[in-house]
Design a protein that fits this description.
Layout: E1 2-5, H1 14-30, H2 35-39, E2 40-51, H3 55-60, E3 65-68, E4 90-99, E5 103-110, H4 115-133, E6 140-142, H5 152-161, E7 164-165, H6 178-196, H7 203-216
Parallel strand pairs: 2-6, 6-7
Antiparallel strand pairs: 1-3, 2-4, 4-5
Length: about 220
């Protein structure tokens, strides 16, 4: 048995691997080599940050691990689910957009995201995001395969604003560069808690700290 980091998402299946190969071929055949820098206007994603009243204690708490047999984790369905908020916990939910050469161009907190909310979000913000990226000629953007962000209402809203989605294959969050920004923000939030010795923080203060940390990324 090994005491390993808990993995929340399954590894790639053979079917998903074939979809990744097809995606790579489509990128080579249908786009220029500058697709990531000049064609894609922005990357959009939402993420939850778990609020704790004592940030320092949270940082010093060991990360979640789980016992596994040797090579057991290679099973595609071998994952560990769990709640990070604890009893009565709260989360700060953020939609963030990044653009090559611009950094973070959008950061907005939200409470609940469903099909109606995201469709309205598209109509309210996407034209501004295309302008902020400086690549109005493209109208191409990237997001993950979240069902809410790809529902019928969202697709109608995308058509209304003239946006074109660059779809990614399943289980391919490693291809989404915005995940690197989220990792940097999480790391910076932990370092802030230690540097400032934050033994207490209100939910409002934490929300503002998350927002300002994204803005500086």
């Amino acid at each position: 048995m090994r005491f390993c980091e808990a993995r929340r998402k399954g590894v790639l299946t053979k079917r998903n691997q074939l979809k990744r190969v097809k995606f790579a071929r489509d990128v080579l055949n249908k786009h220029s080599p500058q697709i990531w820098t000049d064609e894609i206007c922005f990357n959009l994603d939402g993420l939850s940050f778990w609020y704790k009243t004592n940030p320092v204690a949270e940082v010093k708490t060991p990360r979640g691990k789980i016992w596994r047999k040797r090579n057991e984790g290679l099973n595609p369905s071998c994952t560990a689910k769990g709640c990070h908020t604890g009893s009565g916990g709260k989360v700060v939910k953020m939609f963030v957009a990044i653009s090559f050469g611009k950094g973070v161009i959008f950061c907005e907190q939200y409470e609940k995201c469903d099909g109606n909310y995201f469709a309205n979000f598209i109509r309210r913000n996407f034209r501004k995001l295309f302008r902020a990226s400086g690549k109005m000629h493209s109208r191409l953007f990237v997001q993950d395969n979240c069902p809410i962000q790809n529902c019928a209402k969202a697709r109608l809203a995308l058509k209304a604003v003239g946006a074109k989605l660059s779809a990614f294959p399943p289980r391919s969050c490693d291809l989404l560069v915005i995940e690197n920004v989220f990792n940097l923000v999480k790391r910076e939030l932990r370092l802030q808690a230690l540097r400032r010795k934050l033994v207490y923080e209100s939910y409002k203060q934490f929300s503002e700290r998350v927002r300002s940390t994204h803005t500086l990324s």
